[in-house]
Amino acid sequence: MPMHPLELDPEGLPVTVRVRKTEEKGSDVNLATHLLLDGFWQAASAFAVVSNDSDLAEPMRPLFQDFQRTVGLVVPTKQPSIVLLGTGPQIIRELREGVLGTAQLPAQLQDEYGTISKPKSW
Q1: Rg, C-alpha atoms of the chain
Q2: Contact (CB, 8 A) for 96 and 103
Q3: pTM here?
Q4: CATH number for 106
């Protein structure tokens, strides 16, 4: 990746550094696909989307408008996405930090492969 602020080498090319870039890929597309399929197949009468990702607005709209399903929005922040609110969820809740903390697994778990540890920052 290029340095920030941008630096040029003696040949006028951007100086770069190696970085490890970790990001999830495809989870919002997978969730959107299953939301729409479950709505179409009438797999449930109500759906709860736990996210504040505005990319999920388009799959949320047909759940209520086309499939007449109840749609709930549970956001992990104090300010829900205006785009998601624009889909007209019938239920809106904030996922409070204390509730989230009590729902987490223990800091360490054991399985047949060894110990699994939760990062301290969680």
Answers
A1: 21
A2: no
A3: 0.67
A4: 3.40.50.1010
Q: Give the span between the Cα atoms of 76 and 73, in whole angstroms.
A: 10
Residue 56 belongs to some domain of the structure: yes
Task: Say if 8 falls within a structural domain.
Answer: no
In this structure, which long-range contacts are made by residues 58-66, counting pairs with CB atoms below 8 Å and at least 24 apart in sequence? Answer: 58/32, 59/31, 59/32, 59/33, 59/35, 60/35, 60/84, 60/87, 60/89, 61/87, 61/88, 62/36, 63/35, 63/36, 63/39, 64/88, 64/89, 64/90, 66/39
Tokens of 52: 């504040």
Residue 104 is predicted with a pLDDT of: 84
Cβ distance 62 to 39 under 8 Å?
yes
> pLDDT digits over 61-109, tens only?
999 999 999 999 999 888 999 999 999 999 999 998 888 888 888 889 9
